[in-house]
Amino acid sequence: MRFKTLLYILFGLAGFYALAAIFHQNRALLGAHFFLLPGRAVPLYAVLALAFLAGLVLALMLSVVRESRRFVRRWRDSRSRRAARITDELYGRGVEAMLDGRPGTALEHLRAVLARDPQRADALLKAGEILRGLGRADEAAELHARAHAAAPEDLRPLYELVADAETRGDDTTARQHLERILALKPKGALAAHRRLRDLHIRAQNWDKALEIQERIDRVRPPGNADEARDARMLLGLRYEVGVRLARQGRHREAGTQLRRLLKDAPSFVPAWRMLGEVRRNGGDDEGAVNTWLEGYATTRAPVLLTTLENHFLQRVQPERAIEVFRKAVASSTPDTVPRFYLGKLLTRLEMLDEALHEFLALTDRAAYTPTLSYYIAKIHERRGRFQDANSQYRRIIRDLQLLSTQFHCLTCAREYDEWVERCERCGEWNSVEVDFKEDVSLEDLGISTAPVYSVEGA
């Protein structure tokens, strides 16, 4: 026998002895009568026994009720767990079928899940995604709306509703859902900000798109991977706001907007071009010319020289055009690009000898010059110097490698300069063949691809 058990027995005996001693000392009192009703006396020990039994019965009843409740609760929990396990299995089958490319089967399993648990958000989201992929965007939106009602703080149903609206081509509804996302998470949700910006760009709401882009710059964490792209987007949106102002005839505001942009980004070529157009449309031709020249000096962008050329020819000012281009040549180091454009201008003006002089000055500066050779060849051809023209055309053919055989892979379309036994991109053998691009098929030419048998002589 263990010591602990012995102590319990000793304490029990001591308690029993104490209780017996108390009853022995009060044996006269226990024999006294206790009057429950007038004229009805009951021994006191009987009253004590009845009270003990009543307490015991009450305790037993309370214990039975408590255990019954526990049993019912355990039964219900077990039933719920079993139902949840079955539902989870159905959901897992649906996701598996979805991943296996069986949308019909996946949708069947997910509908079974929703029949058991109509408010299950993940099943609503997956089923809606499948329906949208099947071209049933309206039904998808209904399920995603139910998912949003079941989980109002969850952003995923709202993103899915945005995708549903975009699939239907309903940009207005898509913008409304994105604004709700941003209302729930105003300082984050960069993806929602960018999608809302892109929708406004699609609708050419440049001011609103610019406002959202500026908000993105405020909430974007430092060092974000899209920081450089956002910076370019901001410049583009500022430019489009300037273009809009210019098209509305608000030349002063447009000029202010574009000058601010160029102050922050002097290499932004479209702004130089548009600022010159704003000044020209405002009646300041000389200011426009100076703007384009300043833009070319800053960016070295040939499109500004083309803009200058077209401007002077539209104004029927060829002498002024030649003067400006010669100044550009004189002030540029190197002068290859402005000299080439001067030659192009002289060619358009039929000043062929002067143009040829400018082009020939460039022949020793560039190793790969098919465009330059083409202009020289055209001038020789117009002057009747066909041998010289032929020499330039041959140079073009050589530079462009027009006579080299081209090969391409029939599997992935990778192009090669020579035949290879195995494509490096897709790894297929025997898939590289000579690339003959036929613009007209044999059927279009009226030639059958099947054998044709004649009955003559039969």
Write up what this structure looks like:
By secondary structure, this protein is mainly alpha-helical. It has a domain at 3-81. 69% of the residues lie in helices and 4% in strands. It contains 20 helices and 5 strands. It has helices at 3-25, 27-30, 44-99, 103-116, 121-133, 137-150, 156-168, 171-184, 190-202, 206-219, 227-247, 251-264, 269-281, 285-299, 302-314, 318-331, 336-348, 352-360, 370-382, 386-400, and strands at residues 33-37, 40-43, 407-409, 415-416, 432-434. The strands form 2 sheets. Strands 4-3-5 form a 3-stranded antiparallel beta sheet, with no helix packed on it. A two-stranded antiparallel ribbon has the order 1-2. Strand 1 and strand 2 form a beta hairpin. Helix 7 (156-168) runs antiparallel to helix 8 (171-184) and helix 9 runs antiparallel to helix 10.
Mean pLDDT, to the nearest integer, reads 84
Shape: elongated
User: How does the major sheet shape up?
Assistant: 3 strands, antiparallel
Widest sheet: strand ordering: 4-3-5
Helix/strand order, N-terminal first: HHEEHHHHHHHHHHHHHHHHHHEEE
Low-confidence stretches: 438-442, 444-458
Question: Helical segment tally?
Answer: 20
Helix content: 55-70%
- N- to C-terminal separation? 122 Å
Q: What class do helices, strands and sheet pairing give?
A: mainly alpha
Q: What's the β-strand tally?
A: 5
Q: Over the alpha carbons, how many angstroms does the gyration radius reach? A: 45 Å
In percent terms, what proportion of residues is strand? under 5%
